[in-house]
Amino acid sequence: MPHRTFIAFILPSALAMLIFIALPIVSVVVQSLFIEHERVMVTAENCGPFGCKKESHVDEAATAELRRDQPLGRFNGLGTYLDRKHLAAKEVREAFAEASGPIDFLTRVGSLPLYKALGFTLAYTFVVTPLVLILGFMIALAVNALPYFVKGPVIFASLLPMIITPLIGSLILFWMIDANGIIGASLQALFNDPDLSLKASPTLTWITLMVYGVWHSAPFAFVVFYAGLQTLPHDTLESAMIDGANRFERIRFVVLPHLMPLAIFVGLIQLMDNFRVFEPIVGFNAGASATSLSYAIYTDLRSTGAPLFGSAAATSMLTIIGICILMAPVLVRTWRDFKRRH
Amino acid sequence: MSVLTAKTSPWMRGAAIGFITLWLLMAAFPFVWTLWGSFKVQGDFFSRQDWLNALYGVQTLAETGSSFTGRGYYGAWVEREFWRSVINTGIVTGFVVVISLTFGTLGGYALSRSTARYAFWILIAALIFRAMPHITLLSGYLLPFFQLGVWGYLSTAIIVLVAINQPFTIWMLNSFFQTIPKDLDESAMVDGCSRFQAFRLVIIPVMWPGVITTGLFSFLLAYNDFAVTAVLLSQENQTMVPKIASFMGSTQVQGNVMFAVSAVVSATVPLFILVLFFQRHIVSGLTAGAVKG
Amino acid sequence: MATISLKNVSKKWAGFTGVDALSLDIADGEFLVLLGPSGCGKTTTMRMIAGLETISDGEIWIGDRVVNTLEPKDRDIAMVFQSYGLYPTMSVYENIRFPLRVRKVPRETHHERVMRAAAMVELGDFLERRPAALSGGQRQRVALARAIVRQPTVFLMDEPLSNLDAKLRVSTRAQIKNLHHELKTTTIYVTHDQIEAMTLADRVVVMNRGIVQQVGTPMQIYDRPANTFVAGFIGSPAMNLIEGDIRSGVFTATNMRVEGLAGMPDGPVTLGFRAEDAGVADRGGQISAPVYSMELLGDASMVTVQCGKALAAVKTPKDFRIAIGAPVGITVPASICHFFDARSGHRIEHPGKD
Q1: Euclidean distance between CA atoms C94 and A243, whole angstroms
Q2: Interchain CB distance below 8 Å, A234 and B293
Q3: Which contiguous run of DSSP H or E holds residue C288?
Q4: Contacts of C52 in chain B (CB under 8 A)
Q5: Are A224 and B290 a contacting pair at CB < 8 A?
Q6: Nearest to A323 among B131, B141, B290 (CB)
Q7: Are A247 and A148 within one domain?
């Protein structure tokens, strides 16, 4: 296709991505280097019958004017990145100096906001992704063995957790695990512990969120694997049977290798999607015991009073760098494939 | 498939059926339960005495004189004006789908037909954009949008959602277009079409299934979005999902959780209908990206 | 109707030359076949003429216009694709009418022209069907009808028969030949099948690795191949090629000795002869070797022997029989021999030949 035609066709899409994805990244970089203005203080001498007293108070008008003139705030360099809410350079150094051992060090660092969010995000990503693959594969195998006429309804029901709005899905589960909801109450009865609450303990909250994550994404893995099972190489399976492979050897040597590219595809998509985990934390109202990187940005942007643009931008930058590291092996592989093909 | 299932022992079959039953329960029961519960009062759906009350509606009967009540729906739709959000969601998703598909079919077609190196780079850039958490971009939008005075409007949210969905859309359409032989555009061009005419008269008619599938996913992305709409829309322009989230903040206190439950059920219905009618498209769409592996 | 000229036309991709400085003049009404193995640049050449591929270097003229930068639609050509490129959402009738529709040919003439084109390829009964409901041969004819409906100045055909089964291929080949005879439109036809080339072409262009090997009528190419590539590509079976030496008018190779080559320079050389020109000798013969294989073709029997690394096949009468391994003598008189430079492969004329 001639270059000129190509440009004409791609232009709307490319412009949309350039203006609303690439430029905002630049904007994030710039914003992360700035910090909100301090409030303008004025000192006035207040003289009364008992002598004069110096009082300082916020000059609201001057503060508003300053904010209007320089909306970005004041230049802060990499300060925001290094402060306590982000990389917390000082605190980490202190923890390193004072910690009694590696566990103590990790506990100390893990209680810092960014590392806490990073810890949950990574734990969520790397627990949910493999579980989704395994559960999805098992459902696919089981559905594949069902008689034809029930497959349609089963697939219909299986799609629901995935198609549902994440926030709504997590709300539905949230109500069910409420101490007065069906699952919460049943669990209390089961463990005979009237104070048991899935919301109270951080560990249980983590587990709940991850269970939600698997519930939400397993249908996706299932559908892809199920489609893969429909295109199994029959010749190879049959020759494996003739060569004497039993059922499990056939799965091991023919089915799994056939599904491997699909597993990589699902795993990649899951890695990207789980790394941005956000809505369930809002839905489960779990911000106290589990925060993710996305959630941290959200709370900065929605913070009462003025949004903390600088802080949100710094976390965003760190998140973007994180996703790039996560994606690097994939990109390198795609590039190699491309080089080989051309 | 017969090769795989041949000579399955009854034991294996039983285990498979048991497993599937369990999964179906997990997948579908929460929806059934919430739908049922939305017609009860809060005292039943969140019963302090016995969760079985939610089944029989003891409190509901006591409070309203009937085992079922539409109070939650009335409260959400009328008192709290949920209908406004429904209309807003309709506007946003409608425009997002149409614009996404227009931009995406043009771009995806160009990418699928170009052998140049930059086409590859555009796809890679799109992949990276696709991986980026939406909220990171939002922190880039918010301040400039405030400054430009475009914050809070539906049109702003629409354009942003279109852009955020573009990477996904062009990837998906690109892989659909690649299944259409190039011979088709080339014969059209030799027969007298310009590139655009070939695209419009010959390729798009063949592409309808792919366009519908991609449209479904654009719809889902726009409809299910929380981050963009929650941060970019003003109170009066809120769509359903952020509206429900704001219910959560206020209703819990006032004992009106049932408003939120009813709103949640209302917002789920269109998705159900969608899966009911387009199950095949959704399945083919999910696998379209995977086929090329 | 138009002549076509290619002047030093090249197609280069990064680090790869698809077509190298090709020059060619095609006369008005000529049926020209581009012949070569896959990847030889024949399809690329045709696609550059069609405007589906950009031209890296050189000029293409159709009639009195340079068409290098013209869109395909502005070149007044029609093309039949290997996989036909039919529009699956349109009926056969609409498929054939499509070129008229997009070129804004006056509406009232459409029906008559479509019906005439359909009649020429005997498609009258299928006009309302979709392409998916047609057999391979019928689809092929729809593609042909779509090409002829507009009476363009040039027909381009890209391996149009390669997706048909052997029997259908023969009848469709005849149909194409007949169509060309009737319409007399300049036609360029790409194929890798030398039989199609021989039967259809006014002139054949043999290509390999982006370079023209020989241009000529089918008989010229068969009788006087310009190099070992053409010799080995044309004919069935292809010409036997045996490497050996000439010393004072005598060619020698393993199991082989040909005399009477006075006037040929001494040195290493490749000797070629066609299976159908040689025969089995009662006694003696220029080749004597054990039989390597014996194949019955029905109308003839093929005897193959080894001469060093090369295999040499000879066509014998259909009732000839001989056991594998039995010694056989083969007559290869100097008059049927072709000679090629051992290094470059170029043809060397020998003065003794008629």
Answers
A1: 53
A2: no
A3: strand C287-296
A4: 186, 189-190
A5: yes
A6: B131
A7: yes
Asked if A297 lies within 8 A of B136 by C-beta distance, the reply is yes
| Option in B142, B224, B275 nearest A156 (CB) | B275
Q: Which two tokens stand for residue B285?
A: 């769409």
3-state secondary structure (DSSP) of residue A83: coil
CATH 3.30.43.10 holds for C237-348: no
Closest CB to A13 among B106, B114, B124: B106
In the A/B pair of chains, how many CB contacts fall below 8 A? 319
* Tokens matching residue B223: 């409809």
Interface contact B271, partner A, CB < 8 A = yes
| Residues forming a β-bridge with C6 | C24, C60
- In the chain, the amino acid numbered C281 is A
> CB distance C72–B189 less than 8 Å?
yes
When the candidates are 1.20.1630.10, 2.60.40.180, 3.90.1150.10, 3.40.50.300, the CATH number that belongs to C4-228 is 3.40.50.300
| Contact criterion met (CB < 8 Å) for B192 and C99 | yes
Q: Is the alpha carbon torsion for C44, C47, C49, C51 positive or negative?
A: negative
Residue A94 belongs to what domain range?
Answer: 79-111
- Tell me if B20 and A146 make a contact (CB, 8 A cut-off): yes
Per-residue confidence of chain B (293 residues) as pLDDT tens digits?
444 544 567 887 888 889 999 999 999 999 999 999 888 888 888 877 777 777 777 888 888 878 888 888 988 888 888 999 999 999 999 999 999 999 999 999 999 998 888 888 998 889 888 888 999 998 888 888 988 888 889 999 999 999 999 999 999 999 889 889 888 999 999 999 999 999 999 999 999 988 999 999 999 999 999 999 998 998 889 999 999 888 876 655 566 788 889 999 999 999 999 999 998 888 888 876 654 43
Instruction: Kindly list the structural domains of chain B, giving each domain's residue range(s) and its CATH number in brackets, ordered by start.
Output: 2-75 (no CATH), 81-291 (1.10.3720.10)
Residue with tokens 């941290």: A296
